[in-house]
Specification:
Layout (H helix, E strand, L loop, with lengths): L1 H7 L4 E2 L5 H5 L4 E7 L6 H14 L3 E7 L4 H5 L10 E6 L4 E4 L7 H12 L8
């Protein structure tokens, strides 16, 4: 089933109301790049794609239109003026991780995900 899921979704897919349950319910934490503008933030998505290539075992990688879904993003502390911003969601446990001061580099994101995996960062929710 995991192989089929991997083929169904691209490396970093757009998170929408249609695919939300499929992506967030797949047994992995969901990494969400909350974007203010997909075109303006495409460099951030490229960084996330590089991170995704080596971290797919524990995480699903997505992006969310933060302008369109600002109210949803604000539930997790993501503000428009801080986008692009990274949010990690563990939907089945109803917890999330968000650091508004997280850097935007590949190394910053990998370090953050490793710290989450090693329970070094407390969950919010």
């Amino acid at each position: 089933v995991r192989g089929i899921e991997a083929e169904r979704f691209p490396l970093v897919s757009e998170l929408t109301g249609i695919n939300f349950d499929d992506i967030t319910g797949n047994g992995k934490k969901t990494v969400i790049a909350v974007l203010s503008d997909k075109d303006a933030d495409k460099g951030y998505v490229e960084v996330l794609k590089r991170v995704a290539k080596t971290n797919q075992e524990f995480y699903s990688f997505t992006w969310l239109d933060g302008a369109k879904h600002a109210k949803y993003a604000s539930r997790f502390g993501v503000k428009r003026n801080s986008m692009p911003s990274l949010l990690v969601l563990d939907s089945p446990l109803d917890i999330h991780y968000h650091d508004p001061n997280l850097g935007k580099t590949e190394a910053d994101i990998i370090s953050y995900l490793n710290d989450i995996s090693e329970n070094k960062i407390p969950a919010q929710g």
